[in-house]
Amino acid sequence: MRAAEALATIAETTLKSLAGVRDGAGPPKQNGTLDTVCRPAASSSKTPQVERMERMELMAALPDPAPPLKAADFPPLENTGAPFKVAVFSAREHDIEEFQQANEDFGGNFTFCFHSAQLCLDTVDLVRGADAVCIFVHDDCSAPVLQLLREGGVKMVALRCAGFNNVDLEAAARLGVAVARVPAYSTCAVAEHAAALVASVVRCIPQAVENTRRCNFALNGLLGFDMIGKTVGIIGTGLTGSISARIFKQGYGCEVIANDVVENPKVKDAAPDGLGIAYVSQEEIFSRSDIILLHAPLLRETHKIINAEAIQKMKRGVIIVNTSRGGLIDTKALIQGLQEGIVGGAGLDVLAEEEEYFFHNWSNKVLLNDELSVLSCFNNVVITAHQAFFTREALLSICHTTLSNLNAARNGLEPPMQRGKYPTLLTK
Among 98, 188, 398, 428, which one is most buried in terms of CB atoms within 10 A? Predict the structure, then answer.
């Protein structure tokens, strides 16, 4: 991998230091400025308490793009009569716990019917008698399903996620079914997870952990590379993408370039209001980037944006990370790119056709998805099961924003903006 420059630097500096001792001149400074000779640390007049306070002040000065949400950040829901019945699909233990607790906190306005099954034509009968349905990323809200929901009296589809590619919005609007989402529930969580995937792939963390569990403490096969100075290409610079841009530019010291249909001024504009990041074509993202991050929504225009043709344009050894939607990547093309060595590694929190596997325990079963099975065999591929959003703060935000959307539908009102500025309503 390209991080071999680190070993070359170590070897070169060591040889120069030894030559300096041999010739009596002493070891030279590295890069002309960095002292290579170990000397006693200079005494400081500052007490440990003062140094600690200075570090705390420095940390306090760092920007906080999206502080964690608390229950107090959400207005209480007004109890205006009989409970509103909601059928919740793809419900997991954490969903049940959060929604039941929030319902108690805000007056018991809702009656929830939790279903672990995904919403589809085969399960739509479970909605009988519900005023609204609450769905997640893998539920099916295609036109036929929406037709049956409307005939059953459903007034709203409440997504407890930001993406809405699983809902036919045209059909919903035609049928008069309101659709609302949670647009900004885990932007920091997803961006942080993307950074974690990059670090895991670049520094071979999963393989290293597995080695040490087997008492293998050798460094063979674990060579990484420095992040500083590398080029990171971000496709999709909305809320999550802009936070990723900040992490990699200001945190890792990378050169960041971006691509999006709509340019985000907080990304493009110069400091102090923006990051001063250049927007370039997709072709330039592919040809220049050492690391490519996918934060774009799944639309017709972005479906399989990473395909065989795109991979052939990429730098050899490129790292690809996807925390958005699996359909952004042609999985077969990615596997071929990994086999050919064009793709040096991948961090995947989402996969195409993940619905049957993610959020379920398959440890005692045989995987029937050949692509997932093959990807799992690569040492340079890290897969997490759609968990980028999964933090305490995100679950709280999902729950309370969803309840606000449902309460609006219950009272014939338009759902409020999340945090006062992020639209939640997709169709009326």
Answer: 398
